[in-house]
Amino acid sequence: MPGKPDSSRTLRSAYADDPEMTELLEVFCEEMPLRAAALESAARERTWEELQRLAHQLKGAGAGYGFDQLSEVAGELERRVKALRDDECPLESVCADVEALADLCRRVRA
Amino acid sequence: MAAPGAGTLGSGLSEPGAVAGDASLNGLEQDDSMTIAAAHLSDTKPRVLVIDDSKDVHRLLKARLRNEQLDLSHAESGAAGLEAVQQEAPAIVLLDLDMPGMDGFEVLRRLKDDAATIHLPVIVLSGLHSSQDKVTAFDLGAVDYITKPFDLTELRVRVRSALRMHGLLQMLAQRAQLDGLTGLWNRAYFDQRWGEEVASCQRHDRPLSLAFFDADHFKSLNDTYGHPAGDQVLIGIAQIFQRVLRQTDIACRYGGEEFAIIMPETEPDEAVKVCERVRDTLENVCWERHPERGVTCSIGLCGSNGSVSVDAAAWLQATDEQLYKAKQGGRNRIAVHQFGGPGKPKLKKAG
Ligand SMILES: [Mg+2]
To answer: Has this prediction a pTM greater than 0.80?
Structure first.
């Protein structure tokens, strides 16, 4: 279990000061730990299709909510899972991406 | 609110007959705004359908487009999106290209393969670095693209622009169905709509009535006072329709001085009352160009209370026969026939 989030590693949204986004960002960030858990569980269960779907959605959403890095890492994971399913990518690199993405998910703050 | 003029026109067709004309019938000046008045559409907002597999994107667009004059609806997969297009008839579609299952390209292909949706404007939502995707989407018939993550200004401007274009196209399409002089629906529209109404009333066993109005002694009026006066009379009759008929009545210029009124969900008895109000109003108009000469009309009416099968053409002909009877009977009156109804056709005296 990850410990108390380190505030120095907090990821702030580029839209943190946009009043139009305040409410939306709060909801988005609140759900993030759940998504991190879902990513890890899909990797553990090796349900690659589900993992690919989760990554795809984070890729599409992240930057829109002001977290460019989230989109980048999720995009990378999506690509790797796709490759893994085609036997073109080692399991280890997927696991590393899942870890990196889950970590990002736990660090986002409105 | 930043409502682009034409954009607000984008929401479905309204019936010209539903537009209550406010012009004084004594001053029946030709009013350029009339044809436009007929094309005034209801002020419901245009519907924008977003098809994207990500809930987050839906929420984001909802927040980002909150202040736009539009109704947003959502579908979370390609298949659900195609279904929603059928159900909701959106004005434009925002379509994610990258979706699991049926992707955006396939959705676009299917929309463009279907005559009913071939002209539906589709804006694709694509990733920042996928220019080949954009090219493919344009080839498939997309009108525009928006890259994710959304640039706010760009998002709004592109949506507005697509809605404006949609509104103009709607207006043009509707103009092609309107009569230029009177602003009523034209003959082409009548022919199509009449077929639909007959089919629908028979499918659901509902009442339906049709009336033909023909201005009496119109040729002599033209000969005596000139064609501009004749035109004013036609415009005046159209204004009476717009004022006296009900929201649901469909007023069309059938040709020359003849008008056809489709009255859905209306039994002949009720239709007679409606037509009688028009006849009575017209009879009492004082015409600016010829105050000494009034104008009347003869009316043939055929209706059904439901559960009758007459085809559209036969119904039309029967209505024409009633009009002929009204003329023969002395004009300025209604002749009525009820399909499957009690008794013989009856002739209703004026006044
Ligand atoms: Mg997507």
So the answer is: no
